[in-house]
């Protein structure tokens, strides 16, 4: 396999050195010693998994756009490639952007179709108006942390065996955190609500929000199944329980925040 020049830097991120980092097969999820073998300075050969006899990670020769499409289609191999075989250092930035996006939608009453909670002040004071946005940010940050904590808790109760995670310092809690952020990428679909809110009724907005949240839940179930190495049915139970308990506690938090408006 000859490397196009634009992809050479990408392969540098995935270079394996013995004893430093391990990878996983994106097909079966089992650890592999490396992803490719260097034949010459410009030719690489993808290593095959000893368990499933498929290429360990076909995505290392794919364009980023193809990987993104497979992520949108909820492909398990694509999730494994991003979480285990790639550098996830910038995922936290995506998480911050998504929390601010949700907070802005909440603050502008874009979610009024499915909730009666609002942090907008009825007083025409710019400071109080800005304060509502900060409270919305605290609301969604708390919701994210609660969801992560309850998934971790219910995973320990219902799926006691936590699989050993391959990678350089990639412990299970860290991988789960990356997984929750990665599943949240579908929330970028909230952007059309901001654009078309004035030309849509509450029913259409509520339907849009429900569909985006449903996609988020399905993504989270798929990613939890990948990280925890359990069946989709068990992942579905764990994720849904986490959502229900998170919604209960977040309602209490919202009541406290509304007193500050």
Can you put this structure into words, describing what you see?
With 261 residues, the protein is mostly helical. Helices cover 57% and strands 4% of the residues. It has helices spanning 5-13, 64-72, 76-84, 91-107, 126-158, 172-183, 191-196, 202-228, 232-258; strands at 23-24, 31-32, 36-38, 44-46. Strand 3 and strand 4 (44-46) form a beta hairpin. The model is unreliable at 1-20 (pLDDT under 50).
TL;DR of this structure?
With 261 residues, the protein is mostly helical. The protein has 9 helices and 4 strands.
Q: Low-confidence parts, pLDDT < 50 over ≥5 residues?
A: 1-20
Strand content: under 5%
Strand order of the largest sheet: 1-2
What is the count of helical runs?
A: 9
Shape: elongated
Fold topology:
Layout: H1 5-13, E1 23-24, E2 31-32, E3 36-38, E4 44-46, H2 64-72, H3 76-84, H4 91-107, H5 126-158, H6 172-183, H7 191-196, H8 202-228, H9 232-258
Antiparallel strand pairs: 1-2, 3-4
What are the key terms here?
261 residues, mainly alpha, two-stranded antiparallel sheet, 9 helices, 4 strands, 57% helix, disordered N terminus
